[in-house]
């Protein structure tokens, strides 16, 4: 296996597509197929399930187990290769949920990159369960999630580092309806709710209040919410950082709730045993990220 074979294999794992993997590596699809066949002969095992006429491929169980090994091989190769040029940055891969990455961390990430010019930050957004899988497979170095534990991922260390309350967000035109103290949850009109499910705990809280009542609209991403709320009677419930961000960029207000859900948690997730060449960069990043979250709490 050479470096290009390893990068091809990881590209195939990330895309599940021979066409996309070929484009990423700069090879023809037939060349990709030939390299995969060579790898399978080299390892003596079938790595990929390929069916005629199908656009996507799937790794076998053995093929999936090879991913973290090949990722570590690539990391070591790139580390050794980077020694030829002192100016080459050490890569650090960070995966976070979109709501944390978009509405809490942008300034921190920018400041960190400027402060540590020897580190090349690579930021990816994913769901919490995807981040756990990426860490376990060695596809990223640090995860930032909305979960307090990793359930079945015993090799991961999860440290809850920051908690924030939820707030009701709505148009400024609805101020008269919601001002004058915490908004009473029992009086909310669920027919005007734009429901954004962030965590299972939040979803359970909502179900406890309105088990048999459906929201006006439900979505799995927050970016569309502001334009749907401006100058309309609708409302949504979001973590305070997200509500504050939207109210700072749109004519929207956010309000406390009389019976709040459990605070949204932000956790830093890492591998328990991490022995590759990026250990120092990872520990520095985690330390400064922890201090950043503590500084938010002190405000």
Major sheet: size, sense and barrel closure? 5 strands, mixed
Secondary structure class reads: alpha/beta
The percentage of residues in β strands lies in 15-25%
Assign an overall shape.
Answer: elongated
What is the name of the CATH class of the largest domain?
Alpha Beta
Main β-sheet, spatial strand arrangement? 4-3-5-12-6
- Poorly predicted regions: none
Helix proportion of residues, in percent?
A: 40-55%
Q: What's the number of extended β-strand segments? A: 12
Counting structural domains, the number is 3
Rg is 23 Å
Compressed to H and E, one letter per element, the order equals HHHEEHEHHEHEEEHEHEHEHEEH
| CATH architecture group name of the largest domain | 3-Layer(aba) Sandwich
Superfamily (CATH H level) name of the largest domain: Periplasmic binding protein-like II
Q: Look up the CATH topology of the largest domain.
A: D-Maltodextrin-Binding Protein, domain 2
Keywords summarizing the entry:
D-Maltodextrin-Binding Protein, domain 2; elongated; 299 residues; three-stranded antiparallel β-sheet; alpha/beta; Arc Repressor Mutant, subunit A
